[in-house]
Amino acid sequence: PSAVQHVFTTIQETSGDETRLISATGAHGMVHAQQTPEFRELLCRFHLNLPDGKPAVWVGRWKGAKKMERCYGPDFFATLMKASADREISHYLCGGAEGVADELKKACASKFDNQRVVGTHCPPFRPLTEDEFAQLGRDIDAAEADIVWIGISTPKQERFAAQLSEYTSASFIITVGA
Question: How far apart, in whole angstroms, are the C-alpha atoms of residue 84 and residue 64?
């Protein structure tokens, strides 16, 4: 709940001054960050890293965050979609094979009563070129998306989000898994 409220407050109180990155990172992402300094540094630049799995919660509590709770990416997505259904907050969905994001857009409308999904993109199963990132950023900005959701699995999605943030003025890019 506090992460959802933080997203709402940040969107309300800022005016596109920067794109903030949020990752819902599970045990796989934590281990990869320990083994790969470049990825660890990338996650450290994120605005928030949500504890997607119980191991992250256990470590967090052991390190002193006694109230830390699990923030499973799909649950965070569902909660934010439901809570923003009656707000002027728009979403853009990015990930999956061709057609998957479009199906999720329909599901958001029917399941969460959220009609504010303003665009979708299914990236190819290869790295995007700089021109492709620039075009995607233009598409997101033209749709006036506040939140871009990335679902293509760790660590690819975090790298994708960081690169995309250079090309869009969306308030948040949030990685939530495939």
Answer: 31
